[in-house]
């Protein structure tokens, strides 16, 4: 059967000038879908002292399960909780027949969802919104690399309650984070299992516990951009609102003690500029990389709450290669001297860059464009000013990788503790 | 323990001008390691009619096991066969202690290897050669993303007999290809297992059967470049010679019937140019993408031998995104119209491009620079002139993905059939 986009989709953008479409990258076109979320700067929050009683000081929180159940029973979270394993395993039909099914438009099916009705009553208005107007008119949307489809899976039932999406390169790490969060939220139980929702493919893994979705993105910008296109569409089809996306990753540090955790202030490219460059229809297009400053400050506070490891706010350089792209001298190919390398890394440090990884810029650009609060929290595995090889003992590297998980786990519990006021979730 | 490069390595490139190093990307510096391989054009082969008796017509080959044993017993392959499961599972020490071990220089250990001595007597002189002079002087080389190291694994014993490296994005597909090749080469047996050599990490998978190594590379150029840096160093440390690398992948076709297999003539970028562009120390560097023309013709002949599916020789466009980067209208973000997309795809077709994927250009540039014969063989899952979504039935897509494996399996058997003359392997 031939892959095809409906005529309606193909006609939708027809006649618009290219400039109109380039401009839609950063904001949805008028009169399509829910309104775009206000910028974080425009968002108003009561000061901490105005928090309702449910928001207790972070140092002495109520037990996680109590907080979670308080938030749910209050109805103020704007969604009802569907246990992850059940929801994750409830396809309407086998994905194998996705291509043969003519389903009603997702929007119609979602409009009839009680879950969605409740969300409409209670959400904060910050729906996840693709900037592509075609998505709203697709009869079926096959999320090919997730092995999910709007015609084979009830996405609102499976994902409608998602408020936090944590992403990372390693599938194993994202599964471990899900089990960790289940414990932290008091949602685990003896023999509990957290099945891979994307079990039909080996491109990415996806796990869910409560309001936390955990997804792997592989290595590099292209692998991450494919995942993000489908993740953003998934959250849109599921009618999710007020979603925060955080990358919990590994990186090479610059001038930091190995094991330090960097909360990213700005994601910059290899020229130290806060931009994400891509080729679109053979032309170079540059986008700003926007990370939520207040979210970064909240995460820094979580590091201060924990006092378990050094936590630093700094710029993160996003490259497209681990070896030459990051100035390493130990790759199969190397076209520069040690002196060239040292000068480059020292210039990066002078520009406020504290770590180097391979995904932050596309995450900031795409999530920022679609109304998602986004942050990057990476641990440094080595100090690049002192070496290139990652050869610390295995058990040391494993403990390092758990640090961003502990920091973000603490952040999620604090956000849930504040859920009595939905403006804060 | 801090990661560190030995002073010897750091001093090695010191004092050279940057231009010198840029020039070494395409050729190893003089007087370091074995000589660079001659260009395919300079290589001399006897015409088919001069093949020795062991090289029978491809339509009526001797049984694979007979050919394989003939080649081994003749000693003309230049290596002795070590069964993959045994070799693949023989680490000298646990990778967990890699960082604490001071091993002798790999070159010294390899020089004392009988396997290597035999290789020196029989190889064709086309050793795999990193263009980075530092690699030859490293006391230990940790291949971090493979979870292998020169001080914890006997790489010559594990990989010294590798002649064919097949790579693809999907870990499952690369495992399936290994099992398929075991059958095709007559090397499988009841209950045979092919363990993942990179079991200590979840970044990539690696399997080996006879002279065939199968490695996953994930999605996109960055993920593939990380794998290739470590693969090329692995083949160098193992003293492999006369190695052919073939990507067996999936792609979107342009003007082809879905299920067609494209053998790549030239890997081009999103502007239709045969180049691979990367950022090195913050500066844009452009490399030519070199694919072996004679190897592509051999693969086309294999498609003609099989007569099982359409096989086309054409240019392949390598992009850094699956959605906007390939002109799709169904991503979360879309900044152009259907008309813009159609004009772009039609211009690509006019430029000789027959399929679009995300890894070919970096594969061609890096392997070509390091003395590896390289080719790209991808099946098309859909015709992009007719649609964007990959929504054919699952079983149809699975059969499509087997086609490059069958073509390359036939090619490997033909190459082994010609192994009586080592110049042809």
> Average pLDDT value of chain A?
78
Overall number of structural domains of chain A? 2
CATH topology of the largest domain in chain A: Rossmann fold
The count of DSSP E runs of length 2 or more, i.e. the number of strands of chain A, is 12
Strand order of the largest sheet of chain A: 6-11-10-7-12
Query: Which residue ranges of chain A are poorly predicted, with pLDDT under 50 across at least 5 consecutive positions?
Result: 1-63, 66-123
What structural class do you assign from the helix and strand content of chain A? Answer: alpha/beta
Shape of chain A: globular
Please give the share of residues in helix of chain A.
Answer: 25-40%
Calculate Rg of chain A over CA atoms: 21 Å
For the sheet with most strands of chain A, the description reads: 5 strands, mixed, barrel
Largest interface: A-B, 110 and 110 residues
User: How widely separated are the two ends of chain A?
Assistant: 44 Å
Q: What name goes with the CATH superfamily of the largest domain in chain A?
A: Nucleoside phosphorylase domain
SS field, number of helical segments of chain A? 13
Give me the strand/helix succession of chain A.
HHHHHHEEHEHEEHEEEEHEHEHEH
> How much strand content do the residues of chain A show?
15-25%
Query: What is the highest CATH level, the class of the largest domain in chain A?
Result: Alpha Beta
Quaternary structure? homodimer
Second CATH tier, the architecture of the largest domain in chain A: 3-Layer(aba) Sandwich
């Amino acid at each position: 059967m031939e892959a095809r986009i409906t005529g309606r989709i193909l006609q939708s953008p027809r006649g618009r000038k290219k400039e109109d479409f380039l401009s839609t990258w950063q904001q949805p076109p008028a009169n399509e879908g829910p309104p775009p979320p206000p910028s974080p700067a425009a968002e108003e929050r009561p000061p901490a002292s105005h928090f309702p009683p449910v928001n207790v000081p972070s140092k002495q929180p109520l037990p996680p399960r109590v907080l979670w159940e308080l938030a749910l029973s209050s109805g103020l979270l704007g969604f009802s909780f569907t246990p992850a394993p059940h929801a994750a395993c409830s396809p309407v039909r086998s994905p194998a027949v996705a291509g043969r099914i003519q389903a009603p438009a997702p929007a119609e099916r979602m409009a009839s969802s009680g879950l969605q009705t409740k969300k409409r009553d209670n959400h904060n208005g910050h729906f996840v919104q693709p900037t592509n107007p075609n998505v709203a008119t697709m009869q079926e949307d096959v999320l090919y690399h997730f092995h999910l489809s709007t015609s084979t899976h009830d996405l609102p039932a499976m994902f409608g309650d998602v408020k936090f999406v944590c992403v990372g390169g390693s599938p194993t790490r994202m599964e471990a984070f899900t089990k960790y969060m289940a414990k932290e939220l008091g949602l685990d139980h003896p023999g509990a299992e957290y099945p891979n929702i994307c079990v039909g493919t080996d491109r990415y893994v996806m796990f869910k516990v409560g309001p936390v979705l955990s997804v792997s993105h592989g290595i590099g910008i292209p692998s991450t951009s494919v995942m993000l296109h489908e993740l953003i569409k998934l959250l849109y089809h599921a009618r999710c609102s007020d979603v925060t996306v955080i990358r919990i990753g590994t990186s090479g540090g610059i001038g930091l003690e190995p094991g330090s955790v960097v909360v990213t202030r700005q994601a910059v490219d290899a020229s130290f500029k806060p931009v994400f460059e891509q080729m679109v229809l053979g032309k170079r297009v540059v986008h700003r990389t926007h990370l939520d400053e207040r979210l970064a400050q909240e995460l820094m506070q979580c590091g201060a709450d924990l006092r378990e490891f050094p936590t630093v706010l700094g710029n993160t350089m996003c490259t497209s290669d681990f070896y030459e792209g990051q100035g390493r001298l130990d790759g199969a190919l190397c076209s520069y001297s040690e002196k060239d390398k040292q000068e480059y890394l020292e210039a990066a440090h002078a520009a406020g860059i504290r770590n180097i990884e391979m995904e932050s810029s596309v995450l900031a650009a795409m999530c920022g464009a679609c109304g998602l609060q986004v942050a990057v929290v990476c641990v440094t595995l080595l100090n690049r000013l002192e070496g290139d090889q990652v050869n610390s003992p295995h058990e040391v590297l494993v403990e390092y990788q758990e640090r961003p998980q502990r920091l973000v786990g603490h952040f999620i519990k604090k956000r849930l503790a504040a859920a009595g006021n939905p403006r804060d979730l």
